[in-house]
Amino acid sequence: MTSSSLLLLLILIAAISYFFGRKRSEVVAQSVGGVRYLHSLPNYYGLMAAVWAGIPGFVVLSLWVMFESTVIQGIVASSFPDSLKALSESQTNLLWSEINNLRSGVITNASDPALLTAAEQLTALEDRSSILKTILTLGLAGLTGAIGWKLIRPAQKARNQFEAFFRILLMLSSLIAIFTTVGIVFSVLFESVRFFREVPFFDFIFGTKWSPQIAVTADVPGSSGAFGAVPLFVGTLLIAFIALLIAVPIGLMSAVYLVEYASSKVRNVVKPLLEVLAGIPTVVYGFFAALTMAPQLKNFFEGIGVNGVSSESALAAGLVMGIMIIPFVSSLADDVISAVPNSLRDGSYGLGATRSETIKQVVFPAALPGIVGGILLAASRAIGETMIVVMAAGLAANLTANPLEAVTTVTVQIATLLVGDQEFDSAKTLSAFALGLMLFFTTLMLNVVALAVVKRFREQYD
Amino acid sequence: MTDQNMNAIERLATVKEERMKAKLGKRYAKEKRFRAYGVASIVIGLCFLAMLLGTIFTAGWSTFYATEIRLTVTYDADAIGVSDLNDESQLMFADWGALVKNAMKERFPYVSGRSDRRAMYSLVSSVAEYDLKDRLEANPELLGTTEEVWLMADDEIDALMKGQVDMSVPENERRISDLQNSLVESLIESGELKKSFNTTFFTNGDSREPEQAGIRGAMLGSFFTLLVTLALSFPIGVAAAIYLEEFAPKNRLTEIIEVNINNLAAVPSIVFGLLGLAVFINVFHLPRSAPVVGGLVLTLMTLPTIIISSRSAIKAVPPSIREAALGLGASKVQMVMHHVLPLAMPGMLTGTIIGMAQALGETAPLLMIGMVAFIADIPSGPLDSATVLPVQIFLWSDLPERAFVAKTSGAIMVLLGFLAAMNLLAVYLRKKFETRW
User: Fold this and answer.
1) What angle, 0 to 180 degrees and rounded to 10, lies between the N-to-C axes of helices A42-78 and A113-151?
2) Which of these, A53, B102, B421, B435, is most buried using a 10 Å CB contact count?
3) Does A330 touch chain B (CB under 8 A)?
4) How sure is the predictor about A214, in pLDDT bands with cuts at 50, 70 and 90?
5) What residues form the membrane-spanning segments (chain A) (predicted)?
6) Chain B nearest CA to A211, separation (Å)
């Protein structure tokens, strides 16, 4: 039976158990003088019966589905002849795809007779696994369902038991956030460690040449690949800097105007309109940057006599990214500026200051920590942004600070290295995970600092 | 002496006043300038928005119309080389293109010569013959008869009809020859060329031929991906929010969870793609390019958004309601499930819809898990290979054919339409069910 039909069956079993558990509680209640002498409402007896019948089977089924293919592959691989076991990882992957093709009938002639037996073994094991899975899941559901059925009696604290179960469920849900973080850290860390075994850490951090292509034959120049990430870091920072140069003044000034000057009518119209900018998918910005902004910038600069402007210039990507994070800066600045208490403003007006003087000399200094925090968050956004740079920035790793030249960024490299088929034993693929590790920790640091700064600012006026 | 003193004081006062006035003028000018900066930055921001939407709408509008050519097609068995439509072996070698070619030859008998003929054939889309094939296979009784059909025009002709081709440049520098132009003109005169609503765009999957490429596959892929995301992230997000707001003890673990959720909300989306690739595909061997994996990755990505907004919705429920429920003898779980949750539900739904809108527009993590493959088939379930709308946009934006620029913009318009609808729904829900306590 397939896993999805088993799941449906389990749900059905749980629903039936609920119904009969409820009925049974009403029946057993007769012996003690009616439903009102039960410990809990009949509903809870039914729910507990459903939990007993459904949950153990569900846990076993999901564990089985998660590890089924890995275990079966392991068993088949252990019975490979020694000649096949000695192969490298990428060759083993090829073997597996050949085995799968043999099984689906795409090819009929195996390059090695051992593969045919492996394919047969795999099919046999999968059949057996499927039968075993069905028996185990349904058997367990029946067994625990019977236990749940047996447990129903007037003194069973069904409500308390169900609520305890429910709380555990809630807690597990909230733990997923931790599992996600742990998953991210381990997945990038694990592959990065493999990468740093091949490429020394300091070569990666301080190297100035990036060309991850590894030639097939050893005599081609640059065959070993160069993994110096400095050009990527510089490119990322250059684009992020341009973006902030656009977004910070515009975002900040719009926030100031909306909070301090605009009537509530204007504010109600303009604020949502600006926030539309934040809701537009990044791929749309990328398209705009690549097809409209970049050619126009090139034309403009060539019109004023600047030659050699790249059509994938950092300026185009940075400019469009800046547009994207305007609403981000403005809504964060809006929050912190509104949080500055009015008594400060009134005091300033009372001393004869104009509005702009009040804003510049009283409101800004008071809101500064919050604004800095907001800018840091915007910077982390800009560094981690992918689609705009994938579509509008270049692929070649130039170490330059000239915004009119093409640069590449960390996210572009991760995306291009990992799109398409990869083999997981080459430094080229693994380098993407090392870059991911760098990216994750940089943005994490920026966020932690920014959130701490904003939090302290909030506490100051709460 | 006193007189002079008075004069000096008076003079000093006037000087001061003048200075003050001058300074005041400067201060007011500064004030005006500052205000103008504010207005200017808002105007710049809105201009960017208008420019962005303007370019995309002007470029994408034409996608929704397609050019079709009317041809009188004779379903000649000899020309196709098929005598029995149920015979698979014959169908494999059938020459469907001959139908279109014969019809074209009949329409323009005066075109002769190999290259001219070829130019003539290329007026009709190169995949139009398969439309005829499908039509014939569905209605076998048509074999041997003649009928008029509207066939899709080639993308270059489509561009010509939409005024995107500059006919003033020398003939060898444009994609449409003078002969083709004259043929098109004669078709227009006789009413055998029309612009119609482009249904192909909404009913076809991806294709390398721009006139045949559609977004149905991508739309369904997005739908299945969002379905998985919604089915997982809504219950988990709400449960986590309830736990953190109502049940969690104030200890280290809870604090770690809270910090974690806030940080996850700001992790770059591409990192989630790395997680999906390393865990779901390399460890659990889930199928590549499948909406299930996309849904799982997007679930992890949208969870923080949903948890944060659900928590604020729960926080907004006044404690008096909780106390009343507890006072009447409800257990804590009953209080939450029967009273707090229903009251907080509109806020939670709003947050979820906004999270879903984010997930719908997300591209980068899906590139990592292989949803970028060229997939012409339309997915029929969350386990089939599929791509999603934003990734389709990304794929099309890379293609060199001019017609794909319009296609890309058209797909963007559809995507923005969905996003706008979702966000408006969220705003409507918030307005309708918002309760002030």
Assistant:
1) 160
2) A53
3) yes
4) low
5) 6-23, 44-67, 131-152, 164-190, 232-261, 273-294, 314-333, 362-383, 432-454
6) 20
Which pair of structure tokens corresponds to residue A108?
A: 């009929």
Task: Output phi, psi for A76, to 5 deg.
Answer: -65, -40
Task: Report how far residue A18's alpha carbon sits from residue A12's, in angstroms, rounded to the nearest whole number.
Answer: 10
Global pTM reads 0.86
Query: Could you report the per-residue pLDDT of A42-79, keeping only the tens digit for each?
Result: 889 999 999 999 999 999 998 888 888 778 888 887 87
Q: Which two tokens stand for residue B177?
A: 């020859």
**A276 in Cβ contact with A328 (< 8 Å):** no
CB contact under 8 A, A439 and B423: no
Contact B41 A356 (CB under 8 A): no
pLDDT in tens, A352-387: 999 999 999 999 999 988 899 999 999 999 999 999
**Type of residue at B437:** W
CATH code of the domain occupying B216-433:
1.10.3720.10
Fold of A226-461: MetI-like fold (1.10.3720)
What is the residue-wise DSSP string for B363-396? -HHHHHTTTTS---SPP-STTS----HHHHHHHH
Domain ranges of chain B: 2-61, 64-208, 216-433
How many residue contacts between A and B have a Cβ separation below 8 Å? Answer: 258
Contact (CB<8Å) A418/B42: no
Give pLDDT tens digits for A86-139.
Answer: 776 667 777 777 777 777 777 777 777 777 788 888 888 888 888 998 999 999
- Sequence ranges of the domains in chain A: 3-156, 226-461
